Amino acid sequence: MALLAMIATSSSTGLRRELAAATLWSRSPEAQARTNLRQALSILRATTGENIILSKGEMLAVNRDLVSLDIDALDDKAFDLDENITGFGGPFLDGLSINEPPFEEWLATNRANYGRIVRDILFDVGNFALESDQSKRALQAADRILTLDPFEEAGMALCLKALAANDERSQVQIRFDEFECLLRSELNLEISSDLVTLKTKLLTVADEQVNKTTAISVPSILVLPFKTLSDVPEHRYFSEGLAEDVITQLSKFSTLGVLSGQANLSENATEDQLSRAVKNGADYLLTGSVRWLGERFRLSVELIEVASRSVKWAERLDRKISDLFDLQDDVSRYLVGAIPYRIEEDVAEKAEKKSAEQLQAYELMILGKRLRDTLSLEGNLEARSLLELAVKKDQGLARSHMYLSDSYVVQHWFGQLDASEKEKALYHARRAVALDRFDVHIQDHLGFALHTMGHWDAAEAQIRNALSLAKNEIESMSWCGYALLMLGRHDEAAEIIQAVAKRRTTLPPTFEWILGQLFSFQGRDAEVVSTLNGASLLNSTGLAFRAGSQARLGMLKEAQFTLAEFKDARTRDQRLSGMKVGANTIETALGEHRVLWRRKEDWEHIAQGLRLAGLPD
């Protein structure tokens, strides 16, 4: 069945014999795998008939003149959606498993792809049916969605709307209660406030069309055109264009509300600008001035908290003028890289002074992120409790779901996760994408959640998708680079991480942690030792790379000291995870890390460094 499925779903050119053998018999020698393939083909032909499986040299294909595939119908423009709702069964090749990692990875990727296609089709059917007063048809689509994914809130929303449109008011409450119990018992989650609101409206207003909205309280910033200390019109246009670029790029951050205002040449005093910020309801004000000094350009900028009128960040940029467009691009990227991080830090500092009951969902999310950024298992377990509360207070805040998922991802890096915890990581990552698919941080995090599940190809595809969106999001770019490093794409990772290093403004120590690991794989041990130092060591992984580089440089006493720190950090992580405690050998200290690196030689590189530092096998 596995072989037939691979052949049937292959591209129009067919499936290479070599790929089939390597995927289905990965544990066998190459010659034996090819023998197994020939035997399997003989059995298939005996079962299905000689003409079903076609051989074209090294390629295998099915005879499309004799065989039709149900998945082909998904791309058929003549496919009748209304007539085929019940034709969608369970997941792709449901129940099939052959305990071969390459095949399981292939199956997971295809299952996810076809699942998304089917889900989208069913939502199209259901929404169209509601608009066409075909409530029973809409209910069929909703029930099928919930069969495929019982935790799909959007599917439950469609179900409740269809029941209300069909005058089944009692069923609205019953299905709602069943769904609420399911989320609590299986995922320890409360039902979203959006679904509660929808249910209430459906029970009180007949045939009401409800548009779900989520009111999220995030800090807002007013960006005014920078004051131009020049009478040259071209310079004034530059200042206005720079402010517009900053506004455009900041508007892409889902965690920041961006306001803009036109310049008023008579209104340059800080007091006047603050008054405008108060009038616009802004929490922060970005203001500054541009000075032109011959062939040089100077921007002085301040980030002011409106309520306290205090300067939270100030910077002066000096650049040599070459091309004005390149200059504008360079400066706007710098500002956009710094401002959100500075605001998040300010919000976190104020939130730490409040009790848990006083904290809003956004503040809980920011505090959770700060703990997440420690990249320690202890910090992320603490972050999880804050983020679970943030999700409970507002299930519509996508970043809360993302960071909650990340707490499980980080636990996977330093401890261990059971299957249900891995599913939670993926669930919250997908919830975050569903709530805000334009947030590039959320998109790159989904790649890490897929990595945690062991779906290497799907993870890489998702990271590349995030990279295509990450232009000025340098923190996201650095994480995409790290993901590619773990996936064995060292050259691409180096290109991305080094580009970030040239552009970075203010980044947490996690960037140095990533950079140090890249240097190690590049054989730049002296730079590893200078980079993975102090705050950037962060955790046992940083210590492992530092100890290995010290040993390679002949710094044996220092390497032994770092090794002792590494062993202490690993036993602490093991204890927190409930694992068997022990870090006196490569296997007990580092064995769990094999699943993090796609290439065996990358894990071996870390292990060899620890051996040189004095840790036995």
Structural notes for this entry:
By secondary structure, the protein is of the alpha/beta class. Among the domains are: 220-350, 3-Layer(aba) Sandwich (Rossmann fold), CATH 3.40.50; 376-613, Tetratricopeptide repeat domain (Serine Threonine Protein Phosphatase 5, Tetratricopeptide repeat). 60% of the residues lie in helices and 8% in strands. The chain is built from 25 helices and 9 strands. Strands 4, 5, 6, 7, 8 and 9 form a 6-stranded mixed beta sheet that branches. It has a 3-stranded antiparallel beta sheet with strand order 1-3-2. A hairpin with a 4-residue loop joins strand 8 (296-305) and strand 9 (310-320). Helix 2 crosses helix 3 (30-48), helix 11 crosses helix 12 (361-372) and helix 19 (490-503) crosses helix 20. The protein starts with a helix and ends with a helix. Mean pLDDT is 84; it is low at 206-216 and 263-268. Pfam families: BTAD. Residues 69-203 form the Bacterial transcriptional activator domain.
